[in-house]
Amino acid sequence: MAALTRVSGSVGLISLLNPPVNALSAAVRQGIVDTVRRAVSDPQVKSVVICGQNGVFCGGADIKEFGGHMSGPPLVPIFNTIEAADKPVVAAIEGSALGGGLELALACHYRITQSKARLGLPEVSLGLLPAAGGTQRLPRLIGVPAALDLITTGRHLTGAEALKLGIVDQVTDQNTVEAAVKFALSIPSGCNICRLHLSERPGVMQRVKKSAHGAIAPVACVQAVQAAATLPFTQGMQREQELMATLFGSGQARALQYCFFSQRVVSKWSSPSGSRWDTSKPKPVTKVGVIGLGTMGRGITVALALAGLSVVAVETQQQQMMAAQHAVSGMLERTARRRGVSLVGDQIRYSVELEAVADVELVIEAVFEDMALKEKLFKQLSTLCKADTLLCSNTSSLDIDHLASQTHSPQLVVGMHFFAPAHVMKLLEVVYGPRSAPQAVATAMELGKRMGKVSVAVGNCSGFVGNRMLMPYVEEASFLVEEGASPEIVDRALEEFGFPMGVFRMSDLSGLDVGWKVRKARGLVEPGQMSRVRQGRRYSPLGDLLCEQGRFGQKTGRGWYLYDSAGSREAQPDPWLQSFLEEYRARQGLVSRRIDSQEVLERCLYALINEGFNILQEGIAAGPEDIDMIYVFGYGFPRHRGGPMFYASQVGLAQVLQRLEHYQQLHPDIPHLRPSSLLRRLVSSGSPRIQRWREIIRMPHSSL
Ligand SMILES: CCC/C=C/C(=O)SCCNC(=O)CCNC(=O)[C@H](O)C(C)(C)COP(=O)([O-])OP(=O)([O-])OC[C@H]1O[C@@H](n2cnc3c(N)ncnc32)[C@H](O)[C@@H]1OP(=O)([O-])[O-]
User: Fold this and answer.
1) Which residues form the 3-hydroxyacyl-CoA dehydrogenase NAD binding domain (predicted)?
2) Which pLDDT does position 190 carry in this prediction?
3) Is this complex's ipTM strictly greater than 0.90?
4) Which of 154, 217, 224, 411 could form an S-S bond across to 125 if both were Cys, CB 3.0 to 4.6 Å?
């Protein structure tokens, strides 16, 4: 798992051998111990170069080992031995040096890197800290502020950025291993351990805690770096180990590591018809049409252009098109600057003629959420585009199969549901209808990947996965307010759980009128009416009544909260709302009761989770990982909780079932509190680990 050869006469070249990313498995660690010992004791070896095979230095500790019993030599003594070697050791970094991979490089005396290589300490995103000396060596090399930034965010750097920060000694665009060998031949013996004088950074802990939303790893990272600033190296290393011990077996670490693997699982999509990622070849796409340049269309255009695609952007009116062009240019420039990428000129052509998309390979429709308008557009597109052009809709809930039926080639129609702002948000729901061809799904998934999205393939139903699950969650929040909670009580409970924003603050931000429009389209809104049963089930008219008063949220300066002015973001409790709620409850004969955060969490989250089980049972999502990634990347579900389905597995499925039964007895008029039969089935199968749910879902069962 690591090989030693002698090159250029006196350089011992150690290669890590563990494809695909040379993770530091037990065998690799043992390989490093053996090869370093041999190289150091060989009198013909004057210096050592460590590299990874196949153009990747090292992707860090083997994450798969974390779940089980760890065996083999630990990293810390291995890295200490390398650092203490009396022959110069040079790391030759190609591809990636991440986590334990970068810590290995930091223990070497010199580092030479390929300019495009990715370097970073992403342990925090796995619920851990760089506990193989990373929190002690990096601050001593580049200072506390820069080290804190890298260790608490886990962000990756390019080789060029790493040189600027002083993490590496040389960057090359040539063969990195050859450059490192040349470097090793040129340096005298003795090592280059940099020991900066460090001082603490005031105020950092407060900032990190605030942005961590309850995640414990970023806080431990700060504590470890603070130890580097205040303690001698050996004691700092001990502190690092103690902090790591508190994180290693934590539920948060398990959740975050589950997210790491789930993100990769969802790219291996499958559908109930049997089509799969590994048997469906995507169609090559170089030119894409975007129809409708409102907020979504503009974001999609930017995301496509940044991915290097040619875009034909269409808007109906000249004036709106000009406004969109101006906005898109600004967004492109800002995003490119932030990401440090250069723009290829003239990638976007604007037009007011639909015919402009006649020669593209794929069209993304992003017009208003109005079925009649979309029907007409799909009919037109089907006639004017090339026969094999894929037609995609950015609808957030409408029937993809119905849209497909308006075209000559329904197999070429899929949904591509982006999330606002579309050039920033990582999630893409790719929605297949019963007639969508596997190649159409594969092409949309591949396009999402090129745009840097986490793409999740889901089946066709109202609201797909994300918005369908959101309905019961939002409804429960309104029911709780009817029963006695305030928007602040509900939001505080959800924010303490880890959501960046509670239901009501989020609703104020996105606009109460958005949901009002959807409810109107579903025939649920009865202007001026207060009835609490509609279409045979409990209904809360509170949101409609606020909209009737012109309270649309932040944009009107009042909604569930009060704002200083229209557009302001600082939400304050509104005394008017409190009296309005009291009057409402009195008129409805509702007796207000005290509602605590446990009830808020259970009612909102278990309703959401229950709908997730229904979705799994219906085959709309292939597995719990799909739902979890949709919620983590699209809806702000705290990543350190793993997503709603993983969270349910952590709470215990029997407990979730029992609480749903309890609430259903109290509220028999709320159908979404009726426990899903899949949840019952999983509980009666002994609540298996989440990784086994797919087997149970697929098992034939009787609904009797
Ligand atoms: C204990 C002391 C403290 C140290 C802690 C650490 O180091 S914590 C670690 C800190 N390090 C990190 O957090 C880095 C995590 N890794 C990455 O960020 C990326 O994989 C990459 C940038 C290295 C390559 O990106 P890319 O798009 O080219 O490739 P890809 O992402 O598709 O992966 C290909 C396959 O490799 C698998 N796999 C990958 N890494 C690991 C691993 N460390 N382990 C095990 N497996 C790993 C991955 O699951 C996938 O498997 P599949 O699905 O084919 O069965």
Assistant:
1) 287-460
2) 55
3) yes
4) 154
